[in-house]
Please model this.
Amino acid sequence: MRIGLIFAVAGAAVAAALAGAVYDFHAAWLTFVLLAPLGCVTVLACGAVLQRRTGLRRQAVLMSAIAAAQLLVTVALFVALMFVSSHDAFFTVMAGAYCAALALWAGWVLSQRVRGDVQAIGASLEAVGEGRRDVVLAVDGHDEVARLASQVETMADRLARTEAARNDLVAAISHDLRTPITSLRLLVEALDDDIVDDADRKAYLAKLRTHVGALAALIDDLFELSRLQAGELRWSLEQVRLDERVEETVQAMRHDGVARLVVDVPGDLSPARGAPEQIQRVLFNLIQNAIRHTPADGSVTVRASGAVEEVQVEVADTGSGIADADRDRVFEAFFQSGAARSNAGAGLGLAISRAIVEAHGGRIWLEPSPEGTSVRFTLPAG
Model:
């Protein structure tokens, strides 16, 4: 409100200065005395309308009416004090009234349009709140209201995708839990019936431990993934020698059925900055995933290269590769493409790897490859 009053007085002062430059001091003073009070009254009246918040259309019409009334009063005062010819005065008042009527019409039209768009947005938000996600708003233009409508549509689309992802996640978790739980139930029933001898009992107990371990690992992975995605984990960062980490990981996995595990990491590679255990877990997940999808006569290659600000690592295999339709989803939790569905694992390795890499400020992606699959990720240089 204070800014509006200052603007009204300043505008009157500018008009008075122009009148004084063209005519004399008396004209300047009279102009200021007429315009400044009217301007302040108009600002105060418009402020009162805005404070009441009685509806967009009513506010726009009332403010247009206030502006039109100011115009008419201003013209009438100037005519009464300065015009000598009644003929000129009549046409001046008529022109002022015409302009005031157009101002009222413009305010009404604008209020109608804004009110209709706001009602459409409100109805769409209500529909989203009731569960609808196929919201389409027919709001044209490029103004703020149109951008708001576009944001509502985007929000509904994101909600739909989030809900679909949540449903897929629940279905995937249910699927991965059902198998071990069913096996556990059958094993427990067999043990409870006392129909097994000691040798079978020991075998059943070993199977129980295996299934319980698988369930515990799945729950631990889910818990860690949720904490990673929520940004709740904090690590102590240090300089990490990738050549050492890669060599340790590869040596631990050379017996896993792949004919060749190739390491191509220069010894003078710049260190990365990160948490050593977490970086090694990413390497383990990627190499293990590559081994699972590579035949016994194939190969898995781990490469690394450095730049000024980042270090890049690649794990490439000569396996069956990933279908084009699945490439955008391989880093989603529980997603398993094609042949991967027949392999062990719940489909959390790549999702956890992405979460760890992004938590370090890096990125991970699938690199186009003429054969097999190539996964690359970057880490900040140390």
In short: DSSP finds nine helices and seven strands in the chain. The domain at 238-380 is CATH 3.30.565.10 (Heat Shock Protein 90).
